[in-house]
Inverse folding.
């Protein structure tokens, strides 16, 4: 049985995590650009649109050594969004705007930034949009920590869609904790179809099924 | 033979075409925004379309090791519909995207006043966003349309070296060459150019600033006619280096003027998703 969401997945210390991301740029050539861009956005929120789009050209797209799991463009865009010191209802308007008009990389960056932004539940429709696509880059970003705000039925569908579209289940935040009997039934149905067709069941999905079938669970 | 198709409407093609193109040596494409064979009637249809050119198509292409960029614009046909004019207002936002390597296709269709305005406004956008321009020449009254096109280009103040004039033929090629623009030939099964006629023009005008594309779309077209044209060049005595110049270096040099052409690592297959190459078939 699923534990109450708030207890199982506490809101991370968003402010601290944004600072950690910022610190990961210390000494990099793009640091002055990033500082100035964040300052400009803090003073004038309309500047977000152009600077958000240009961030990858200035900061690059490589993995950030000091922030495991983050690329420079996604971290930089998260920092730019964090620079918006606005009330929730105004902030979400900016977040939605850069997502709706964003290319795939910008959309992905917005999705990754969501857990670090004080937007409450207001950005859940953006996850719905990302999960509707068949783009694994967006799907993978949509099942991160912010996905704890998805209702259980859609979350299960998102996990199943990861298995279908080749997104490794490592991308799913709190998978073992949140996986329930209904998800297991869906995965078992999928595995049955695959085997009936003479096809393999992806190793991570098979392992999850096996793990859920035993006492110890989250191995 | 490595191929860069500088003009192909992949949104109209199947994923199987990407597979065949990859097998034929196509490693990079530019997809210009145009119409869809059926008029659109509102700005939202365009933004969804731009979204596809900036997200879904690059992803589909990457599955076959093909690097996908695009050019964005309000095309001349639909510039005539007042319901679509608002596209000009949203374009500045899209022209800042990483995958955009030119403003296009712009130019003329029926040579109306509305087309005049959209064409001039978008050449100004190309200058403002430091992007080259991909200019389509009209299918009807082609010679007259090409002359008028080149006059508008000259008047705009854009460097002709940052303008690619496309769908040229025996009658119009010299106008574009004399104007100092880059020259595009669209090779089609029935209309536009054939591989043999393209080779004849390359013999006459040389390989400098000359580009060959399939312009494949929803009509009777063939995404592999770039390869066939390269083979026809070889058969006609052009060197491998000449062919590489036309089918690779020239489009690279033209679109690199945007500063946004990203061709790093295109020979590494499967680098399609966040550094993870795992894929499980059907999408």
């Amino acid at each position: 049985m699923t534990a109450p969401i708030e207890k199982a997945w506490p809101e991370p210390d968003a402010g601290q995590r944004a600072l950690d991301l910022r610190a990961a740029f210390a000494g990099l050539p793009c640091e002055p650009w990033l500082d100035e861009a964040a300052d400009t956005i803090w003073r004038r929120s309309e500047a977000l649109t152009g600077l958000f789009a240009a961030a990858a050209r200035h900061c690059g797209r490589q993995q950030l050594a000091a922030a495991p799991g983050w690329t420079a463009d996604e971290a930089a865009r998260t920092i730019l969004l964090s620079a918006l010191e606005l009330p929730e209802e105004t902030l979400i308007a900016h977040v939605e705007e850069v997502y709706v008009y964003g290319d795939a990389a910008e959309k992905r960056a917005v999705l990754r930034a969501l857990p670090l932004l004080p937007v409450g539940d207001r950005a859940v429709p953006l996850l719905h949009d990302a999960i509707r696509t068949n783009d694994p880059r967006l799907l993978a970003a949509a099942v991160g920590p912010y996905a704890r705000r998805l209702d259980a039925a859609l979350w299960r569908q998102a996990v199943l869609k990861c298995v279908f579209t080749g997104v490794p289940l490592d991308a799913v935040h709190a998978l073992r904790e949140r996986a329930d009997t209904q998800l297991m039934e869906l995965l078992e149905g999928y595995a049955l179809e695959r085997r009936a067709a003479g096809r393999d069941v992806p190793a991570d999905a098979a392992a999850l099924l096996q793990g859920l079938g035993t006492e110890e669970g989250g191995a | 033979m490595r191929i860069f198709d500088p003009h192909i409407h992949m949104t109209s093609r199947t994923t199987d075409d990407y597979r065949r193109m990859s097998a034929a040596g196509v490693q990079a494409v530019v997809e210009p925004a145009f119409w869809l064979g059926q008029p659109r009637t509102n700005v939202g249809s365009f933004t969804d379309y731009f979204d596809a050119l900036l997200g879904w198509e690059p992803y589909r292409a990457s599955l076959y090791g093909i690097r996908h960029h695009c050019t964005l614009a309000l095309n001349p046909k639909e510039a005539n519909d007042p319901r679509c004019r608002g596209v000009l207002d949203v374009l500045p936002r899209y022209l800042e995207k990483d995958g955009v390597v030119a403003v296009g296709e712009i130019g003329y269709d029926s040579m109306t006043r509305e087309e005049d305005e959209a064409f001039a406004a978008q050449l100004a956008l190309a200058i403002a966003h430091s992007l080259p321009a991909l200019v389509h020449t009209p299918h009807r009254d082609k010679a007259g349309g090409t002359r008028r096109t080149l006059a508008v280009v000259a008047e705009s103040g854009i460097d002709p070296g940052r303008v690619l004039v496309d769908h040229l033929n025996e009658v119009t090629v010299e106008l574009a060459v004399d104007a100092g623009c880059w020259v595009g030939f669209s090779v089609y099964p029935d209309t536009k150019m054939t591989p043999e006629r393209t080779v004849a023009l390359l013999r006459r005008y040389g390989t400098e600033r000359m580009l060959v594309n399939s312009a494949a779309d929803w009509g009777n077209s063939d995404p592999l006619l770039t390869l066939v044209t390269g083979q026809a060049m070889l058969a006609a005595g052009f060197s491998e280096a000449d062919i590489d110049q036309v089918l690779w270096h020239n489009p690279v040099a033209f679109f690199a003027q945007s500063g946004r052409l990203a061709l790093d690592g295109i020979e590494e297959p499967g680098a399609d998703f966040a550094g993870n190459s795992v894929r499980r078939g059907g999408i």
